[in-house]
Amino acid sequence: MWEQRYGLLRPVRTATNIRTYCDDDLRRLLNVATLCGRGHRISKIAQLSEQEISKAVISCHDDANDYCQQVHALMAAMLAMDEVQLNCLLNRAIKRLGFEQALIHVGYPFLQRIGVMWQVGIINPAHEHLVTHLLRQKMMAATDGLPAVSATAARRWVLFLPEGEMHELALLFMNYALRARGHHVLYLGQNLPVAELKQVCAAYRPYAICTVLTATPEREKLQPFVDELCRCCPDTTVILSGPVAQHEALVLPPNTVRLQLITDFLMLADQMRVSMAVPA
After folding, report:
1. Could you please report the per-residue DSSP string of 213-241?
2. Which GO terms describe its molecular function (predicted)?
3. Is the pTM of this model over 0.85?
């Protein structure tokens, strides 16, 4: 209807008359949807130039609690490969909401939208890499800015990703959240063989070991992986997160906790902080 009545789009058509849309079309749709969501009439929007639409969209993001519109703006900046605008929008959200709330309400929905768009072939890996690198940079900078925590007076956590797992953003956010709550973290990062954790547990004596399973292990290797992890760390709470860990057939050993949402993890971290009157 927007195309036929208002001429907002002029998609290319295939030989069989099927519409195809380019990145510019998608950017325009995101911007128009943002303005419509803020009460602008579509008939008025259709009369604006691209520059006027972009300017109007930027002015829409004065409301720190309008998360949906902030995600739309990030999507449009990503599709344009506009790193300066991406950085500006993220910094604005962080300044207004605080780092953790900005990631939960804006960063995570943004990443979820990227995942869906990548899955259906709307964006390519370069878009995802641009955003991932920028968010990773901000998480590491925010974590580096936190005060140091003594390992002798705090809960001790080990964070790692198993062999073949390279999706690090969720683990980096967990690292920040734990340190911000006064926990001590041994961050081991990506691609760590499970067998190496036995020596780590003996030396570091962690309260919990946490991993995020986004792409690995494969379904038939999931149960052996979890069983080996618990054998290597028998006296430690093992926390599993990520989409792979949600498989219904997975049998959880007694010392294992499975979390579905990042907010579940934050709640657990808060509970542990409350119970830290006695050192672990």
Report:
1. -SS-S-HHHHHHHHHHHHHHSTTSEEEEE
2. cobalamin binding; DNA binding; metal ion binding
3. no
Q: Closest Cα to residue 241, out of 140, 187, 171?
A: 171
- CB contact at 8 A, 178 and 207: no
What 17-25 contacts at long range (C-beta under 8 Å, 24+ apart), as own/partner pairs, is 23/79, 23/80
Segment 131-151 shows an average pLDDT of 93
Where along the chain do the CATH 3.40.50.280 domains lie? Answer: 151-274
151-274 has CATH 3.40.50.1000 classification = no
In whole angstroms, give the CA distance from residue 239 to residue 233: 12
**Strand order through the sheet with 237-241:** 184-192, 156-162, 208-212, 237-241, 256-258
